Task: inverse folding
């Protein structure tokens, strides 16, 4: 199985996670700072990872509302997915990510990580939780 990329698309940052070669575990890779909606500000970093790691599948978190409805952030995530599909030969999978950012925050709080450090890792941790949820569902 090829490695899979997981993305947590926010308005200022994009958390990036990658799976192991067997598709069993996800780990946080990086956080991309970008200027929404200027997708070009993400392209160099994503291109490098997609090409180096031979990524063919990208899982993008959909931040649905708790009642299952979709708000503007879901539209923004889908638009970003369409952009990626136009740029790279990848399959885009959308994954319901309700609670992943809150879960990531809770894990970091329980680990007593300072607020400043939490801010630095929360996005890639959320991306890895999104990706791990997807990997668990297919394995």
Result:
């Amino acid at each position: 199985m090829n490695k899979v990329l997981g993305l947590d698309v926010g308005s200022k940052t994009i958390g990036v996670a990658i799976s192991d070669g067997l598709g069993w575990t996800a780990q946080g890779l990086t956080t991309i700072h970008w200027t929404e909606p200027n997708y070009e500000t993400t392209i160099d970093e994503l291109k490098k990872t997609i090409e180096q790691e031979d990524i063919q599948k990208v899982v993008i978190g959909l931040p649905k509302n708790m009642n299952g409805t979709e708000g503007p952030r879901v539209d923004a995530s889908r638009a970003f997915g369409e952009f990626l599909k136009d740029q790279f030969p990848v399959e885009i999978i959308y994954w319901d990510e309700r609670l992943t950012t809150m879960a990531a925050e809770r894990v970091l709080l329980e680990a007593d990580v300072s607020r400043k450090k939490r801010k630095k890792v929360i996005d890639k941790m959320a991306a890895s939780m999104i990706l791990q949820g997807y990997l668990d569902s297919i394995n």
